[in-house]
Design goal:
With about 290 residues, this protein is an alpha/beta fold. Helices cover about 30% and strands about 15% of the residues.
């Protein structure tokens, strides 16, 4: 998927803005950039940034939760604001050395030079985009989420086993369908629908007990499309949509930003940030 949610709709999705419009259609592409930079190469005195001694980070405006809080990327609150500052810290930049600028989503991955060092804006790593821009190692892979009407028999499920007898709806040809088959293994075949609108309609009409979509889509669905529904929980599955920090093609920063992301993954810091701003904000417990 490209972007979680069109901007005009996002304003009504306070806890879910920018969530994916199409259910479960994330790319599992991985960035092909070189991530072999050494620590000595990745310090402010060595990095070729837009402004010497500063790190210029871009995102779109308005910036919505749970990715940014109070439409203020500079406050460090929200999943992507916190992630950007963590990357900056890993590279040796203090918060006062991070300069935020606005970059519209659709222009971020267009060919050509950039006025930022990297952009964080729920931008999926896809092969077509990689032809024109660089991506860091992925800083987020979207989990799958189970969404049910609040009165549904599975609304209080606490494990994947609790869902095995449920009638589950899912969109055809998506990673979500693969996830249902491989991870939930329901006792009855899931109901498969042609597009995301049909999935939503089925949930509203009570044709299914629950639907499975990726987590960003679930945030939008429960906030804007079916506010009477709830996110039962989330679970990991192969093929999740990967987001990366975006940079200009052949940027001299790519290897170092990737190294920073990988170090944050290894230390567990990224997992803490994700849990604080994505899992808790979504109130979506992990289903094992």
């Amino acid at each position: 998927m490209s972007r979680p949610l069109p901007k005009p709709l996002a304003a009504i999705a306070a806890a879910a803005a920018l969530a994916a419009v199409a259910a479960g259609c994330g790319s599992s592409s991985s960035s092909s950039t070189d991530t072999t930079a050494s620590a000595a190469d990745c310090t402010p005195d060595q990095l070729q940034t837009q402004t010497a001694g500063e790190l210029t980070v871009a995102t779109d405006k308005p910036a919505y939760p749970p990715y940014f809080v109070d439409n203020d990327p500079t406050n460090g609150k929200g999943f992507e604001s916190a992630t950007a500052y963590a990357i900056a810290d890993q590279l040796g930049y203090s918060r006062s050395q991070v300069n935020w600028v606005t970059e519209p989503f659709n222009s971020s991955y267009a060919p050509g030079p950039k006025d930022f060092d990297f952009d964080v804006n729920q931008i999926s790593i896809t092969p077509p985009r990689e032809q024109h821009v660089d991506f860091s190692a992925p800083y987020y892979t979207a989990n799958q989420a189970v969404v049910a009407s609040k009165g549904s028999s599975v609304a209080d499920a606490t494990s994947l086993a609790d869902l095995q007898d449920a009638q589950i709806g899912v969109q055809i040809g998506t990673t979500s369908l693969d996830a249902v088959d491989s991870e939930i293994q329901p006792s009855s075949q899931p109901k498969v629908f042609n597009d995301s609108n049909d999935v939503v309609t089925a949930l509203k009409a009570g044709q299914v007990d629950a639907v499975v979509v990726d987590l960003p889509t679930a945030l939008y669905l429960t906030a804007a499309q079916v506010p009477t529904a709830t996110i039962v929980g989330q679970f990991s599955a192969p093929g999740g949509d990967e987001w990366g920090a975006l940079m200009a093609k052949d940027s001299p920063l790519t290897a170092c930003v990737s190294k920073a992301v990988e170090d944050l993954q290894s230390s567990g810091e990224l997992a803490k940030i994700e849990n604080r701003w994505m899992s808790q904000a979504a109130k979506a417990p992990n289903l094992d």
